[in-house]
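hey m, so remember when u said the tokens were messed up on ur end? i reran from scratch. heres the input so u can diff it against urs
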Amino acid sequence: MPDIVHVTYQQTGKSKSTNAYGMREMQQKAFEARTAQYLLIKAPPASGKSRALMFIGLDKLINQDIKKVIVAVPERSIGSSFSKTELKKFGFFADWEPNPRYNLCTPGVEKSKVTAFLNFLESDEKILICTHATLRFAFDAIDEKQLNECLLAIDEFHHVSVDGDNKLGMVLSSVMEKSTAHVVAMTGSFFRGDSVPILLPEDEAKFIKVKYDYYQQLNGYDYLKSLGIGYHFYQGKYTAAIHEVLDENKKTIIHIPSVNSGESEKDKYEEVGRIIDGIGKESYQDPDTGVIYVTSTLSRKQIKIADLVYDDPKSRDKIQNYLRNITSVDDIDIIIALGMAKEGFDWPYCEHALTVGYRGSLTEIIQIIGRATRDSDNKSHSQFTNLIAQPDAEDDLVKLSVNNMLKAITASLLMEQVLAPNFKFKPKYPEEDEVDGVEEDGADYITVRGFKLPSSQRAKDIIESDINDLKAKIMQDDTMLKAMPGNVDPEVINKVLIPKIIKETYPDLTDEEVEAVRQHIVVDSVVKNGTIEEVGDKRFIRYAAGFVNIDELNIDLIDTINPFQKAFEILSKSVTASVFKAIQETIDATRITMTEEEAIILWPKIKNWITKTGEQPSIQAFDPQERRLAEAIIFLKEQKRKAATNE
């Protein structure tokens, strides 16, 4: 199927140009906040977070009386991102020179690494690199005060959470509470995909946040001009369908599904074999590098494949070492991975991230897409394709498949908003004649009548730094997914369901703060889900149900627009009539219960319906919104009956 998201960029080169210190744009922003005790850097893959940490860490060692820097990464392969780096030759005042002895991202047992960690704390050495696991084990053997005057840097920070079973979260919380350590946290997204927050609100409030968004990064590249996101639905085995979307002429990473997922064929080695057999005939596997050479059935050319699924340690180390040292676009053609080649994996030549099965975390999707969005002279376009199982109307697993399809589509639309340029919004009062335009900082802004600005710094910070992560939580919520296919009134979605989720996520917010955050989310979603078109001297937003003059935007109008309408249209066009009927029935069977808030919002719509049609809405109607109005009548009658009984 065609892309449902296609974003183009201007190739300004700005995100890759450097200042007098050799810092790229994102690194400059991070370095400006270098004196913060707690610093959170939210920036996309390939934006230079590793080197930003080097700049900050060296400044803290040399200028801020910090004695040691400890860098923790989620897996050993990412440790190479923090190896020795010459920075002076680019204009910085020091080089990053960790002692190889204290690079603990090497093969070996954790016991010896913990011993090395403890020795480092007692030594005169300045820099240690380890995995999250080593940090957790070492923490059991030290007192928090041993980290006084240390900088603890946690890469891929979304691995942390406040869950009682998340040891890394407990380590961080304890370090912040019981030591004077500084903390730098780095991540591409703050959204984990589950209901557990990464930090408690009181801890999160201590962090200075540096945000660099995906649009800034990709718009500032030299070569990459566009990014497409598409979904391909299949029935049967994915290994038989994958070749419909696999282009052997594009440098591709294939992420096969977890063995526990519905898409898995339950034997990962067999799955890899079937994928390779679909490409062609295996010629041989290089004993030194681990590269598999396959003669393509289509082109007869040699395809070089890296198998990261086979988990024999010696074989995996061999191919990983080869991949770390590739220097040419011709060194590898296809990588097949399971749970690897995502975070921190650098293959700039990659053009296509082909992923089988729905990924429940927006952060994981961002990481996977990030493998294909490195800037490289071999590509002007990058592609993310998600191969998703289409539900069989007769299958007992139809409910699971429907849920995965809905989440996949909403995730893609959310990614469209993540990848798009940011707008700013402010109130427009009746007496003002000002028009929308550009602020002094160069950002587009749009004025909206009745729009509420945040009244507290807390609400401002959420809107400024967390808006996409909060949108992800809202759009992936089970109740919201049931509301998506047009069966819940837009005002109920915008005024009841969305603020409920905001309040659950940020229980410390007042009703006024919740309303300000809600309005920003709804307005931002409506604007980004539409397209802005210019006709003469006027601008219009075209969205699924029509278009509106930007100068006439008001919050009441925006609240009548379904933020899921685009997803619903994509879904209805992407599957067969029988499958769509199964989707509707599955959602109808788990319809959200009526609340008094929803009924109050629907009551004037019921009266309007009766006035226009001369009839009451029918519970048997095909139109889901008419059925919902009929259910509201039943609900209100029941509430009235209960009130009369109580009297």
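this time it looks ok to me. Residues 435-442 have pLDDT under 50 and may be disordered. if urs says something different then somethings off w ur setup not the seq
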